[in-house]
Hints:
By secondary structure, chain A is α+β, with helices and mostly antiparallel strands. Chain A has seven helices and ten strands. Helix content of chain A is 19%, strand content 15%.
Amino acid sequence: MISENKGNKKARYGMSIDVDRCTGCGGCMVACASENNVAPANPGANDRKGLTWIRVFKVDNGQEYPNKRSVFVPMMCQQCGEETPCYLACPQQAVDVDPSTGIVGQMPERCLGCRYCMAACPYHARYFNWWDPVWPAGMEKTMNPDVAPRMRGVVEKCNFCHGRWHAARQKAAASGNRVLDPADYVPACVEACPTGAIRFGDLSDASTEVARNSKTPDSFRMLEKLGTEPKIYYMSKRQWVKEIAEAPKLTPQKEPARG
Amino acid sequence: MTFRGTLLFAGGVLASLGLGWIAFPHAIYTSRQQPVEFSHKIHTGSAGMQCEDCHALREDGSYVGIPPLEQCAGCHTEPTGQTAAEKNFIEKYVTPNREPPWLVNARQPENVWFSHTPHVRLAKLTCARCHGDQGTLDKPRVYQEDRISGYSRDIWGKPVANVKGPTQTGMKMDDCIECHRAAGLEHSCLDCHK
Lengths: 259, 194
């Protein structure tokens, strides 16, 4: 169904997240929700039922004071490049992997709400709409016209701010270009991060910062042993942090992180 | 079968076809007239204008769509011709400075991210490739609104019998896909959806 790439330079978009730099401020979560038209949480939403395309988890090394160490780990769709679990699980072809960008796309209109993809996703990066989105009066004016709101009963997730990709592509086309200017395509969380912990770029281009970061010894990926080839690279200089990637103890905070 | 039986059968077939092809479309579409009897033919013909003079692309690649009233008013504060349509337009919209509530045949669902720019600048498509002979029509077509979906029936694409009209144009998803597939540019749903 999906034809071979033509004209466009084939990209493999990914991120590098330096967890040593993350202060856990949550700015990325707010930026993400407002960029992608995630409505304020329904009063019935709890830790499990909220919508958080990106979510900052607090993880510690499991030891008591004074040896206790904590780290904040922003988690979003890891954009698996191989054996993409949600793509394989979906009975509706509502998930696809774009061969020209590497982005795993979700089509809410095709989704029937079975949530097999959520069960298949090793990263808990997919969220189900338990309620129709409701914006408080007046707030609907702040909605992003480049992103369609979703309805009750479908699954949604991070797609690297695809609306911004569209806008960047349009801007490139205006000057007769098929290749995007990297400065035009930056997801909201990357833009919002005050410490510059999250970086975004084309992993297939060796000159980009993310490509260099992905090759440093500090770099690791979540559950790499599964072989899903995620395109989110985490970085830390601390060994115990790297270990959480293989045996995650990502227990959510007591305070519900509602989307 | 008797002659009478054959006649009855043929009559029944004709009646069913008539119901399906003529009566049913009337039942599911409501017809509305455009607010102004706008003539593309005069503007692109004797007035010598190009599509881009009104339907322009901005520098950032976004598209102006139907031009705002002030652009029309640039020429039409006073009647330039003799037609009743123009007089009507000036009295009802230009003088009270009220935007005409145009009915857009090309309106797409909210989950479609369509940009004219790549199609015009990169693929070099003509306007008529998708919009048909809109630019040469003397008066706007009757806007037929689907009572259920609210979209226009007249988005030009393939009719039900899968035979394309004389203009070979279309704005339905299948028409987009057909062209993207032929050009090798079909990658993902999110190429066009948002």
